[in-house]
Amino acid sequence: MATDVPWAKGDGEGAEATGAAEALLLLVTGRTAAALPRLAGPGTAELTRRS
């Protein structure tokens, strides 16, 4: 979920990762290493594990 604009991606299932839209766009375009330090929330642990 974006914290700076009204935007969210996903189906509402699973742990949430929040951050600025820029960080979320990095994440969804595969730039996980660049996105992770800019994200917060319980979903970041899962993202870290997967990367």
Give structural notes.
The chain has 51 residues and is mostly helical. It has helices at 21-28, 32-35, 43-50. The longest helix has 8 residues, at 21-28. The protein is globular and about 25 Å long. 16% of the residues are buried.
List keywords for this structure.
single chain, 51 residues, mainly alpha, 3 helices, globular
What's a concise summary of this model?
The protein is mainly alpha-helical and about 50 residues long.
Topology:
Elements: H1 21-28, H2 32-35, H3 43-50
Number of DSSP-assigned strands: 0
Quick one: biggest sheet? none
Let me know the average pLDDT: 92
Number of helices: 3
Distance between the termini: 19 Å
Secondary-structure element pattern, one letter each: HHH
- Sum up the overall morphology in one term: globular
Number of domains: 1
Approximately how much helix is present in the residues?
25-40%
Q: What class do helices, strands and sheet pairing give?
A: mainly alpha
Give start-end ranges of low-pLDDT stretches: none
Percent range for β-strand residues: under 5%
Rg, please?
Answer: 10 Å
